[in-house]
C-alpha cells in the first residue's frame, strides 16, 4: 500500500535532524513542572538539537497527564523546535496534535502483526499525524509485527532503540530503508555505528543534555571527515557508557544530573521520581565523565 503523503513529507523534512529527548522537570515531590521547561528546551535547541521529542521514554511520557504533555509540547513549539510527541493510546493523539506536535512517537504495544496494524490505524485516524514507530529494547517487536509497523502507510519513520543487539539493529535499519521509510537511530550506545548502518536521523535520550556531544557525531559523519567523526564518536561513547548502564532505567536520572551541571535545570528540578536506586557515588562519577568529554570541545557544524 502506498504510504500517505503527509507521512512521506514529514520523513523528508526530518532526514538529517537530531531530535533531543529531554527529561521532564520534576520537583522533589515528584510533580511534573512544565512551567520551568522553557529555558531548558531553548538551550537544547541553541546547543544543536533540530527538534525535541516530548514525553518520550526519557521524559517519562507514559507517566504524564494529558495536560502536562500538552504544556510541554507547547513549550517546545515556542522555542522553535520541530516537535514529536510520545504517545501510547489513540486518545492521546488529538490533544498532542492540537498542542502543536508534528508527528507522534508510538510506544510499542504487545501483539501480533494484525493487532499492531489495527493499533496504528486507530492512531492515524485519531489525529492524522505521521507516525514514528518505536522498536524499544524493553519490548522489541517480533519480525512479523515489525514488518507490519514498517509497512503501515501512516508510518513515516522507525526509531530503533535495541541497546545492544547490533545484528537486529542492522537488519531492521535495512528493512526500513527497503520500504523507503526514514530510519531513525535511538541507539545511544551504538550511535556512530548506527549511522554507518544507514540511519539518517536521530532521536536520543543522550541528547537530553550535553547536546553538542551528540550533534558533533552527526555533523562529522555527514561532513565526510573520518578523523573528526571517530573523535566525536569516542566522546559520545564515553558519555553514553556512563549514563546508559545498569540499572539501565537510571539513565534518566543520570542525564538530569548532567542537565543540572550544565545549568539547564535548577537543582530542585533534577529528581526523576521513577528512577531505580543508584549508588551513592553515582552522580559524582557521571559528572566527572561529563566534564572529561566536554572539556575543550568546540561545536562542529557543516550545514
Topology readout:
Blueprint: H1 5-14, E1 18-20, H2 38-47, E2 51-54, H3 66-78, E3 82-87, H4 93-99, E4 103-106, H5 113-127, E5 131-136, H6 143-151, E6 155-161, H7 166-178, E7 182-185, H8 191-196, E8 201-204, H9 211-222, H10 226-243, H11 251-261, H12 282-294
Parallel strand pairs: 1-2, 1-8, 2-3, 3-4, 4-5, 5-6, 6-7, 7-8
Please indicate the percent range of residues in DSSP E strands (runs of 2 or more). 5-15%
Strands side by side in the biggest sheet: 1-2-3-4-5-6-7-8
- Mean of pLDDT: 94
- Provide the CATH superfamily of one domain: Aldolase class I
CATH class of one domain equals: Alpha Beta
- The assigned CATH architecture of one domain is Alpha-Beta Barrel
Low-confidence stretches: 299-303
By secondary-structure content and strand pairing, the structural class works out as alpha/beta
Percentage of residues assigned to helices = 40-55%
Global shape? globular
How is the main sheet built?
8 strands, parallel, barrel
Q: Give the count of helical stretches.
A: 12
Our measurement of the CA-to-CA distance between the termini, rounded to an integer number of angstroms, reads 35 Å
C-alpha-based Rg, rounded: 18 Å
Oligomeric nature of the chains: single chain
Order of helices and strands: HEHEHEHEHEHEHEHEHHHH
CATH topology of one domain: TIM Barrel
How many strand units? 8
Pick out its properties.
303 residues; alpha/beta; TIM Barrel; 12 helices
Short structural description:
This protein has 303 residues and is of the alpha/beta class. It contains twelve helices and eight strands.
Amino acid at each position: 500500500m502506498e504510504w500517505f503523503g503527509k507521512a512521506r513529507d514529514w520523513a523528508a523534512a526530518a532526514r538529517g535532524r537530531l531530535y533531543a529527548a529531554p527529561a521532564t522537570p520534576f520537583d522533589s515531590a515528584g510533580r511534573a513542572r512544565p512551567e520551568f521547561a522553557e529555558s531548558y528546551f531553548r538551550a537544547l535547541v541553541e546547543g544543536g538539537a533540530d527538534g525535541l521529542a516530548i514525553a518520550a521514554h526519557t521524559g517519562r511520557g507514559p507517566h504524564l497527564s494529558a495536560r502536562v504533555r500538552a504544556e510541554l509540547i507547547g513549550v517546545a513549539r515556542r522555542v522553535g523546535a520541530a516537535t514529536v510527541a510520545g504517545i501510547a493510546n489513540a486518545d492521546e493523539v488529538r490533544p498532542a496534535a492540537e498542542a502543536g506536535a508534528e508527528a507522534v512517537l508510538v510506544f510499542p504495544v504487545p501483539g501480533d502483526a494484525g493487532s499492531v496494524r489495527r493499533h496504528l490505524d486507530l492512531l492515524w485516524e485519531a489525529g492524522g499525524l505521521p507516525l514514528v514507530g518505536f522498536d524499544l529494547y524493553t519490548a522489541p517487536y517480533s519480525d512479523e509485527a515489525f514488518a507490519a509497523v514498517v509497512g503501515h502507510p501512516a508510518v513515516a519513520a522507525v526509531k530503533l532503540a535495541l541497546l545492544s543487539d547490533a545484528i537486529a539493529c542492522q537488519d531492521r535499519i535495512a528493512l526500513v530503508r527497503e520500504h523507503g521509510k526514514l530510519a531513525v537511530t535511538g541507539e545511544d550506545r551504538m550511535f556512530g555505528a548506527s549511522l554507518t548502518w544507514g540511519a539518517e536521523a536521530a532521536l536520543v535520550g543522550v541528547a537530553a543534555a550535553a547536546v553538542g556531544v551528540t550533534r558533533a557525531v552527526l555533523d562529522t559523519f555527514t561532513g565526510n571527515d573520518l578523523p573528526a567523526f571517530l573523535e566525536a564518536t569516542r566522546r559520545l561513547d564515553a558519555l553514553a557508557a556512563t549514563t546508559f548502564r545498569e540499572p539501565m532505567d537510571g539513565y534518566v536520572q543520570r542525564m538530569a544530573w548532567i542537565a543540572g551541571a550544565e545549568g539547564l535545570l535548577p537543582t530542585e528540578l533534577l529528581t526523576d521520581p521513577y528512577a531505580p536506586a543508584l549508588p551513592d557515588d553515582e552522580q559524582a562519577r557521571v559528572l566527572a565523565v561529563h566534564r572529561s568529554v566536554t572539556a575543550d570541545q568546540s561545536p562542529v557544524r557543516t550545514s
